[in-house]
Amino acid sequence: MEQVIKEVLCKHLEAGKVIGNSQHGFVKNKSCPTNLIAFFDRITSLVDKGEAVDVVYLDFSKAFDTVSHDILIDKLGKYNLDGATIRWMHNWLDNRTQRVVINGSQSCWKGITSGVPQGSVLGLVLFNIFINDLDIGKESTLIKFAEDTKLGGIATALEDRVIIQNDLDKLEKWPEVNRMKFNKDKFKVLHLGRKNQFHTYRMGRDCLGRSTAERDLGVIVDHKLNMSQCDAVAKKANVILGCINRCVVSKTREVILPLYSVLVRPQLEYCVQFWAPHFKKNVEKLERVQRRAARMIKGLENMTYEGRLKELGLFSLEKRRLRGDMIAVFRYPKGCHKEEGENLFSLASKDRTGSNGLKLQQGRFRLDIRKKFLTVRVVKDWNKLPREVVECPSLEIFKSRLDKCLSGTVFGPAMRTGDWTR
Q1: CA quadruple 377, 380, 382, 388: dihedral, nearest 10
Q2: N or C end of the chain: which has fewer CB within 10 A?
């Protein structure tokens, strides 16, 4: 029944565009990468123009456990949900009880008046509805992934910093009205840009702490906007690969290849379109992990790396990242992120040749942090794609035609077409 209600609820939210664009958590076609790309595209652009930028990382205290049932039901009504669905939701949340058991000793049963049931199908959707109005009235850029929230804005002039402080003052009132709490001790400010004055912000009477680096949705971003994760992810992937090597007796491709694809490679590719390596030493550091995995497979020990890849139907991680870049771009001007794509990419003037009909305009940049960011670095490669690829009617057809291009000469030396997702 929960699944049925969830489908009805999600259709209503999508049709009415109820959930704001700032929410990227548990929303159709959005994810951690879309959150990071959307937010830091603006941040890197501002820093590239010489602006100082301050980013405030917010933290809720027990966010999912403190959602007030009464306030949630009231918000469902404000979003024009039908009465029958609201009554079902009220009955589903109502009359829940809990108790604590420690070493056989039991507390009394107590009624639960707050919190979305963890592990439930509806819990995450209801939380998104509850927190949806958090960014109303804010002038700074605010973006969310469920409860993970950050606020960023220009901080070059005094009036810019006043705007950020005013937004923090407004944010302070939100948990009071909605019976939630901020964990102010975990609030951190990341100061970016050469002209930054390292202003001290407040939340009520509390001064917010500064940080030189923050883990943002699993990706570390520092005060110089260095986002490279190469050392950390290569180390973690090598540890997992070492465990596989020690614990798995069979070294056949039927055993090692699936384990590598499921357990190791995802470590190297999580949000990689956001933090992709560009220095040769970092590119090679990641590639060495796959070299090691391929060398483990019985019967391939004496082959070259390129020979092993060909034999296994794999491609270099660098080639996979290029493919991922192209797929990410397709989702913006043509696919499921079209609305956001208007803010991230600009189409170039159409020409009368038979070239790519969705050519992107190359943005200007001064700094490497902007040059290497997804929305700038992909333009040259995207514009090389032929018209029949970029104008595909669906993502699946695009992937199929893209693979043929990548196995040809559009991006360099020919490579054998294989299973990119394996």
Answers
A1: 180
A2: N
Residue 183 belongs to what domain range? 2-222
Residues 55 and 141 in one domain: yes
pLDDT per position as a tens digit, 197-242: 999 999 999 999 999 999 999 999 999 999 989 999 999 999 999 9
- Range in 167-171, 295-299, 313-317 with the lowest mean pLDDT: 313-317
Residue 213 shares a structural domain with residue 249: no
**Tens digit of each residue's pLDDT (9 = 90 or more) over 98-108:** 899 999 999 99
Say if residues 193 and 51 touch (Cβ distance below 8 Å).
Answer: yes
Same domain, 262 and 279: yes
* Count of CA atoms in the C-beta half-sphere (13 A) of 90: 14
Q: What is the DSSP letter of 326?
A: H
Domain count, the chain: 3
Q: Distance between CA atoms of 185 and 213, rounded to whole angstroms?
A: 16
Q: Which amino acid is it at 251?
A: K
**Residue 77 domain-assigned (yes or no):** yes
Strand, coil or helix: 161: helix
Angle between helices 83-93 and 2-15 (to 10 degrees): 130
Residue 262: partners with Cβ closer than 8 Å, 6 or more residues away: none
Count of residues for the chain?
A: 422
